[in-house]
Design brief:
Chains A, B: Residues 254-377 form the RNA ligase Pab1020 C-terminal domain. 2 copies of one chain form a homodimer. Chain A has 381 residues and is of the alpha+beta class. Chain A has helices spanning 13-17, 21-28, 75-82, 118-138, 184-194, 207-223, 245-257, 264-280, 285-311, 326-338, 364-374; strands at residues 31-36, 39-44, 56-58, 61-63, 87-92, 96-103, 106-111, 142-149, 167-175, 201-205, 228-233, 239-243, 317-324, 343-351, 354-362, 378-379. β16 (378-379) of chain A pairs antiparallel with β5 of chain B, so a sheet runs across the interface.
Chain lengths: 381, 381
């Protein structure tokens, strides 16, 4: 990584971003300024003035934020409503969203909010260094968009067959500065040709046909506890997502394991999704009841577990395991602590030159409030 | 009811309320001014500057709001923490909270937020006219606090054995102006002597003994689908509530039948209560799972029902049945419409001189949003 200060922008940022000077001035107040290991950058951690959340300003250029993907609650009407031409259906993976770009000659990984991630950067360079260099040599202004998946994951751990630890899986190819996507077939061909793993493609068809066939795909994904699908117009400009019940349940269990950290809206939305899916699929009373039972367990059992853990003096939070070269793990832990997280290390060992660490990002509010309520603190409601 | 304008206050309202003139000036901005059938009053629909929500300023006097009752999530610690002397345990009923006061010679009923309710006023005069007159003759400055319960209820219908339609049940006796409560034994004696029905008393004991015995009481209430208990210091000054799982489930089912009307916090709190109760009761995995299943059904099945109703072109909302003299029902419907509610009348018949009306308070947001999502409107999350 270059440790020299970034050169001045080749042209003003507002021109690069395609907004007025005044818009950019307003935007600038909301940019977070960061320096990591000599890399100075600014990023937008919330959507503002028509610029995507996660947009990064670095070394005189821009790494555009990945756009938010809208969702439908009713497939049969939502898909035809949203698309007027062929729709590509690809798998939506459950991990964390990253964007890779080559800045001043170095491949860097940025998380959804535009934070440079030293851990992801090292992992993708180790796993796909040559492939990415070849890609960026040919298409230097590319933003490689994908998901980091697998069980040994510092943010969102989820099992995927064939992924023992952590792996990158591409799902988008965009212009780094404008954010414009490549069409689905071109993108898939290019990733194929560069040997970069990419998300599963279930097919491309007319909206009505996609809507008809989606339930079967989603049910199969659900059985494998997978997350869902992203649908796109062939040119990649319009996107729409739809998720499995397993994903909703997983999210609920996760949220309720830290009940006082997660937004109540986060929870509410997932409950609503379940109800719409059940209605659209015309579930019988007994099937809907089974769905309700699994939902209830996701909510209650994870919350009970956390309360019992606090009662037993344990730390509640997001518990993850990572495995990598010692220096990579060091960089990750430092990075997480730099963000103000309190890490409790549960296990730390070295196997075959790799360091394997299980740590818990302590959820301050959840630990404190559960303890208070166990101590008999009254609640004013 | 007196139709003459209210006389000027005997002393300024800030003195009656016991706040400074400046406090009262600030408070005054938040008072809602109402006129009903010649009765002019102001009320505080939200807690402000140390004055209880629901406080009414009428005819130169005050009807104090009923204080919010704090809750514990853990009985074993919460009860001893909250009380330092004997604790009276009484049943908490599931209906709507009303306060009765005699103003200018007339017994009037005010709801929780301080709204005069012409329906409740007529019902209590019809059912308990003589008893209340005797009570107010002897204790004119009393505020009779209680719950309107039963299945034929314009706000909160719930079955109670022995209540065919709607009934008043007292649970508090306070000074109308200061809000100061009578002690529990005095209150119970007085209601007994005036022949006014009152809430069940399970006993009065030291905090540790109450905490130990509460589970048994709550489990018995739960089996009968009853709401819970209110605990009070003997002098009535400190209160604490604790509710059954049945009450939580009932609330959740109700809230999710109108998912876009109810606060997400409302839902969240009830889920948290369930988890703490399960942990405190040391439930086995299978008992906790059963609790989770019932919880899931309360959430999902009521939401599915509402979505299906909207899909079938029906109106979703709070559906209630009332039975009373035609004039009383007219007064209720007018009162509800005056509050901006859209009523859909499902049934309207007369039996034995009584009018029986089933109506639905239409939930605008829920109807609209469910319809939009069924139509495929995307959601931006």
């Amino acid at each position: 990584m270059s440790s020299s200060p970034s050169p001045p922008p080749s042209k003003p940022y507002h021109e690069i971003l395609g907004v007025s000077e005044e818009s950019f001035d307003r935007l600038e107040e909301h940019l977070d300024r960061r320096v990591h290991d000599g890399l100075a950058y600014r990023h937008l951690s919330n959507h503002r003035s028509g610029v995507e959340r996660g947009t990064v300003l670095v070394a005189g250029t821009v790494v555009r934020g990945f756009p938010k993907i809208p969702r439908t609650l009713t497939v049969s009407t939502g898909v035809p409503e949203h698309f007027d031409g062929p729709v590509a259906v690809e798998e939506k993976l459950n991990g964390y969203n990253v964007r890779l770009a080559r800045i001043d000659g170095d491949v860097l990984a940025f998380t959804r909010s535009g934070l440079f991630c030293p851990f992801t950067t090292r992992i993708v360079r180790r796993e796909l260094g040559a492939e990415l260099e070849a890609l960026f040599d040919e298409y230097p202004q590319t933003m490689v968009c994908g998901e980091m998946i697998g069980p040994e994951n510092p943010y969102t751990a989820h099992e995927y067959p064939g992924v023992d630890s952590i792996a990158f899986c591409a799902f988008g190819w965009r212009d780094c500065v404008s954010g414009r996507p490549l069409s689905v077939p071109e993108r898939r061909d290019r990733y194929e040709s560069f040997g970069i793993p990419q998300t599963r493609h279930f097919g491309t068809d007319e909206p009505a046909i996609v809507a008809d066939g989606l339930r079967e795909i989603v049910e199969a994904l659900d059985e494998e506890e997978r997350e869902g699908v992203v649908m796109q117009s062939r040119d990649g400009s319009r996107q729409l997502k739809y998720t499995t019940s397993a994903a909703n349940r997983g999210d609920l269990a996760y949220a309720f394991s830290m009940p006082f950290e997660y937004g109540q809206e986060f929870v509410f939305r997932r409950l609503v999704r379940e109800a719409f899916q059940s209605v659209e699929w015309g579930e019988s009373n007994s099937t809907a009841s089974e769905r309700a039972h699994r939902l209830g367990e996701a909510i209650l059992c994870s919350m009970i577990e956390s309360i019992e853990a606090v009662a037993a003096g344990e730390t509640v939070g997001n518990r993850q395991t990572v495995r990598a070269e010692p220096e990579t793990v060091d960089a990750l832990l430092e990075h997480l602590r730099d963000q103000g997280l309190t890490l409790v290390i549960d296990e730390d060992r070295t196997t075959n030159g790799e360091r394997v660490v299980t740590f818990c990002k302590r959820s301050q509010s959840t630990n404190d409030r559960i303890q208070n309520y166990l101590d008999g603190q009254i609640v004013d409601v």
